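Work through what follows:
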Amino acid sequence: MTALINPLTADALHTHAEALADLLLDAVADGASVGFLADTGRDEAAAWWRTLHPSVADGSRLLWAASDADGRVLGTVALVREVRANGRHRAEVSKLLVHRDARGAGLGRRLLTTVEQAARDTGATLLLLDTQTGSAAEHLYRSAGWTSFGTVPGHAATPDGVLADTTYYYKQLIG
């Protein structure tokens, strides 16, 4: 299954909010600690995506969606650019999600490559992200050259409400 990765404009974000909500809820149902608990409903998840409209509109957040030939959203990733003058060289990778049906085919790596290239294109030389310690995502980040720089015990709740550790990563973009 080959997915096409396309940037989402602020207007397209509203159009795709329900599909992105489904993707988010799939991740939560699979136990991903992505900021939402198991009782999150589709309306709440879609509303959260819509809250990103201002940051996508002003360019401080770049957002991509990966879709199959039928238009089903299979993955997403965001680049959150630092707007303060002393940090414009850095950005954060956020909400890298791949639907369970699309895992294992390299889509996560393609989304990560997409966001890293976009960061380079915007002049960022340092990327940051965090993920649940022990998650499958850690393997992806390490194999893509990311370096862990610390773990915070009990930092975030899993979807079932259990506090879990969070590991922070960085990647310097050279060349």
